[in-house]
Amino acid sequence: MRRAGSCLFVLLALLAPRLAWAEDEPEQEQRQLSPQEIEAWLDSRALPSSDQGTATAEAPPPPPRHTGLVVESSVGALGHLGPLKNVSPTSPWFAVRVGYEPFKWLMLFGEADVSFASTKYASPPPPPRAYWLYGFGGGVRFTIGLGEHFGVFLQGSVGGARISEENVLSIYGYEDANETNAYFGGLLGFEWYQVNPHLGLALHGGVRQYNGLERARASSGPVAWVSAIALRYAF
């Protein structure tokens, strides 16, 4: 009897740890998560997985350049290459053009321009006098695009021009300057189109032949150069 009791005591001693572990296991399975653990779990679910990579948003394409009705103004300088360069210095020159672009590469336009000049370089008498050289005409422009933001153009124009004051230049041998005479011009320009699809900036230069500004018995013709910066707006 004493031997049977000893064996039962040893068996209970061996099974006690297993029974204690079995009693603790349900408590571990039913343990409530703390707020910090819940927040950490939610944050981990919100993060992208490592195999998804980082998505990069593509920039939208720029809006297309507007064509149609165009208004352009130019501010620059005009200088003479013939004998008139010894009478009138390089003068400020202003021009405005109103045109229509049926295509991006073609524009038909009308233009008006004026140069505020003087006879400062002429030998007195008479003393220096001021005059305007102004004209009206029209022409055509061809444009070649250089990507989305730049372009180059070549234009030709024809019209009529005259000076504003009587006998200012005739006394120096320019007898037809007081009459309206034909002019022919050509410009080469570089355009920079802005983020706003209506706006553009340009730098251009070229030559003009003013038929009414020939000097009697002169060996060279009445040619002038022009150079200007321009601002255009397309509606």
Defining key terms:
235 residues; alpha+beta; Porin; 2 helices; 8 strands; elongated
Summed over residues and divided by their number, the pLDDT gives a mean of: 84
Q: Can you count the helices? A: 2
Domains, number = 1
What's the overall geometry? elongated
Tell me the span between the first and last alpha carbons. 116 Å
Q: What is the CA-based Rg, rounded? A: 43 Å
CATH architecture classification name: Beta Barrel
Polypeptide structure, described:
By secondary structure, this protein is of the alpha+beta class. It has one domain (69-234): Porin (Beta Barrel), CATH 2.40.160. 17% of the residues lie in helices and 45% in strands. The chain contains 2 helices and 8 strands; from the N terminus they run H-H-E-E-E-E-E-E-E-E. The protein has helices spanning 2-29, 35-46; strands spanning 69-80, 91-103, 106-118, 130-146, 150-163, 181-193, 199-210, 223-234. Strands 1-2-3-4-5-6-7-8 form an 8-stranded antiparallel beta barrel. The protein is elongated, with a radius of gyration of 43 Å. 24% of the residues are buried.
Topology (elements, then pairings):
Blueprint: H1 2-29, H2 35-46, E1 69-80, E2 91-103, E3 106-118, E4 130-146, E5 150-163, E6 181-193, E7 199-210, E8 223-234
In short:
The chain has 235 residues and is α+β, with helices and mostly antiparallel strands. The protein is 17% helix and 45% strand.
